[in-house]
Each structure stands twice: as C-alpha cells, then as structure tokens.
Amino acid sequence: MSFIETIKEEFLETLKLYLEIIKKPYLILVGIFYVLKDLFYEFPKSFFVKKSASLKVALDRKASQALAISEAATIPGTFTGVALFKSFGADDYSASVIGGAVGNYIFGAVSCWLSFILLTRTEEEYHIGSAMVDAYKVIRDCFPAVLALYVTDAPILSLMIFLGIERNIAVGLNLALGLAVFTGIAKHSASSRINIKEQKKIIDK
C-alpha cells in the first residue's frame, strides 16, 4: 500500500467515525457514561476481582484510565506550551492561545498513547503492537475534535457572556462542555477500535 493510499484509508476511517457521531449524537453521552463507569465502577472492582470477565472489559477500563491520565496531563501541557512560546519571544496572546493549545494537545496525546500501552501490559492476549496501533488510532480520531474545540472555544465563550453568564462561570462551563465532548468522542473511538481488534481475534480463532 502506498503512502497516499495509507493516508486516504486513515482519513476515511476517521471520517466514518465522525459521520456515525453526527448521525447519532447520543454516542457522545454514551461515551461519557462508559468512561465514568470504567473509572468509578470497573476500576475499583478490578482490585477485588483478579481476572476480568473478558479482554474487552479490561481494555475498555484501561482505555478510560488512559483518557483520564491524558486529560490530567493537558494541564501542565498547557502551561508548558505557554512558557515555551514566551521563551521564544511570542507575545502574551500568541503564547496563551497557540502555545497553550500546542502544549495541551502534545502532552495529552503522548500521555494517552504511553499510558494505554503501559496499562495493557498485564493483558497477555493483547500484544504491545496492537496497543501501540490502537492508541495511535484513538489519537488520530480525536485530532479533528481537538481542532473544532479550539476554533469554537472563543465564539462559544463570547456567546455565553453575551447571554449574561458571568465570565468566570462561562469559562468553567465552556471548559466542562469541551471536556465532555472530547471525552465522549475519545471513548467512542477507543471502544470502536478495541471492538474491531477483538472481533478479528475471535474470527482468527
């Protein structure tokens, strides 16, 4: 397969995911629900149940953990991006908007990729190569959502303030909204990629 064909296939895979979400917006809410379920039910339960009911349950849980870690990593990532851009001579606005966004995405993407790979090393049936590819696909799928959230961030915040919402509350609501949308899309992507991988394994057997 040529490089152009590979890029085309990658694009179509991600496009298919977003078309599905556009047709069924509730999938974002489903994704958020399963992240919360994995973090606050499946994860604590794993301390008392040594072996998961299935590979899928274990991978879903660890995907949610990786997403939570990546969200936490975006905080220092944003500050690091701002500081680096300022050190290169960027003005305050460019450093905070562009530098913060770049640092946010890089820290989030790298931490998600690494944490998912490391968290799944206890699953003998799930090879490290599969973990690397699946984590990459989730990051790839999330990139358009990240761009859309960055582009719409200022307009949505301005609209909230225009509607009379106090600025600090508007900032908090805007952040929570962006986080919820991103988490829902990321979880839907993770579940889709892991399901595809497990179905292939079942067929192979």
Ordered list of secondary-structure elements with their pairings:
Elements: H1 3-23, H2 26-46, H3 55-87, H4 92-119, H5 128-162, H6 167-204
Helix pairs in contact: 2-3, 2-6, 3-4, 3-6, 4-5, 5-6
Give an overview of the whole structure.
- The protein has 205 residues and is mainly alpha-helical.
- The protein has one domain.
- 86% of the residues lie in helices and 0% in strands.
- The protein has helices at residues 3-23, 26-46, 55-87, 92-119, 128-162, 167-204.
- Helix 3 runs antiparallel to helix 4 (92-119) and helix 3 crosses helix 6.
- The longest helix has 38 residues, at 167-204.
- Residues 196-205 have low confidence and may be disordered.
Q: Could you give the order of the helices and strands?
A: HHHHHH
The total tally of domains equals 1
Structural class of the secondary elements?
A: mainly alpha
Which whole number gives the mean pLDDT? 86
β-sheet strand percentage: under 5%
Number of strands: 0
**What is the tally of helical segments?**
6
Q: Residue share in helices?
A: over 70%
